[in-house]
Specification:
1% strand, globular, SLC26A/SulP_dom, SLC26A/SulP_fam, transmembrane, Sulfate permease, transmembrane helix
């Protein structure tokens, strides 16, 4: 379970550092707007996203089992984080994140990293599409510039609330959001190695500022971004709160473990390497403990940012450390400028993120799956959207494992009548 950083430093060269430094700065420019947008969508202060990317990203790269993994806040957590904050407050989220960190450390120590192969793929695809749908609808308010004081968290109640607020539609906000989406797509096609996210969001935010468009910025709605890291501290810890937040902590740990290991496997295919799953789980545990101590969000390996790191030339965990340090420099010296990013641009960014999360290029393949897998995917998706992520994952995994056993032709149990 040795971290990959220690392995790669044995043969490290100035040439490798140059490649890692370029990739790390590039990924930081991608992570900056994403971290702010994910925090806002999660119901937290935007600066919390930066704290998570700095602390969580540093620890995941320093202690992880992948050469190129990039960590931080991700869209997969938005739904569960929003729910925890709504029901238990931000203090409750911090405690749940700390508990999830301990769970992940225990999972790594018990060498449970390889168990990801037993999670049905249809379940992962189902709740991922469901989360993407929830994220997309949560961004419609800012995309259309709607004036809605209290947007319901529940998906089924959110849609009517959005419709009722249609009279406050702001064409300028929609124009900024759509322009941001278009620019991101163009940058990805024309200059895939460059940080098109920050360029697109920065350009549309600049246009909004110079044209004095009536759209909200991060600073106008949430105040100035922090210009330093907060002091570490612990939330209120009681036995009752621990029991109350335990289900949320398990969901955070599950999502962090699954997404980080999936991201590491994607990275392996891109670089022809092999990650260390148990070291990765321990790094995720440490990252969530660290993020929680500094008042951050849950952290995990981010598939899109990891892929960006590889495409930009990152070759060792040093690139992830450079990414975290670059974000720290931005927080210390450029937080005022980052606060001028406009919310419709961030909404457009998250809408595109949600679209990519749902992996539309695979939908045709899903339609060709066996009937049982299609039903399992749809059931998990519907439960994620209409019920609760905890229920969706629990029911989906249980049914998926049952289907797996059935396909292996395991003979039915020889039940005997009870004696009672």
């Amino acid at each position: 379970m040795t971290p990959k950083l220690l392995t790669t430093l044995k043969t490290y060269t100035p040439k490798l550092f140059a490649a890692d430094a370029f990739a790390g700065v590039t990924v930081a420019m991608v992570a900056l707007p994403l971290s702010l947008a994910i925090a806002i969508a999660s119901g937290a202060e935007p600066g919390v996203g930066l704290v998570t990317a700095i602390i969580g990203g540093f620890l995941i790269s320093a202690l992880g089992g992948s050469r190129v993994q990039i960590g931080g806040p991700t869209g997969a957590f938005i739904v569960v984080v929003y729910g925890v904050i709504a029901h238990h407050g931000f203090d409750g989220l911090v405690l749940a994140t700390l508990m999830a960190g301990l769970i992940l450390l225990l999972a790594g120590a018990l060498r449970l990293g390889n168990l990801i192969q037993f999670i049905p793929e249809a379940v992962v695809n189902g709740f991922t599409i469901g989360i993407a749908l929830i994220i997309a609808t949560s961004q419609l308010k800012d995309l259309f510039g709607l004036q809605i004081d209290n947007l319901p968290a529940d998906f089924l109640h959110k849609l009517p609330a959005l419709w009722e607020g249609r009279e406050s539609f702001n064409p300028a906000a929609l124009g900024i959001g759509l322009s941001t989406i278009l620019l991101i797509v163009l940058f990805r096609r024309l200059a895939p190695r460059w940080p098109g996210l920050i360029a697109a969001v920065g350009l549309t935010s600049a246009v909004a500022a110079f044209a004095h468009l009536p759209v909200d910025t991060i600073a106008s709605r949430f105040g100035d971004l922090p210009s330093s890291l907060p002091m570490p501290g612990l939330p209120e810890i009681t036995l009752a709160r621990l029991r109350e937040l335990l289900p949320s902590a398990f969901i955070i740990a599950f999502l962090a473990g699954v997404e980080s290991l999936l991201s590491a496997m994607v990275a392996d295919r891109m670089i022809g390497g092999r990650h260390r799953p148990n070291a990765e789980l321990i790094a995720q545990g440490a990252a969530n403990l660290g993020s929680g101590l500094f008042g951050g969000l849950p952290a995990t390996g981010a598939i899109a940012r990891t892929a960006t790191n590889v495409k930009a030339g990152g070759q060792t965990p040093v690139s992830g450390i450079v990414h975290a340090l670059t974000l720290l420099v931005i927080m210390l010296s450029l937080s005022g400028l980052a606060g001028q990013l406009v919310l419709p641009a961030l909404a457009g960014l998250l809408l595109l993120t949600a679209w990519n999360m749902s992996e539309p290029d695979k939908w045709r393949d899903y339609a060709k799956l066996p009937l049982e897998d299609r039903l399992l995917l749809l059931l998990t998706l519907v439960l994620t959207v209409a019920a609760d992520l905890t229920i969706a994952i629990g029911v989906g995994v249980a049914l998926g494992l049952a289907i797996r056993l059935r396909r292996r032709h395991v003979p039915p149990s020889d039940w005997t009548p009870p004696t009672r």
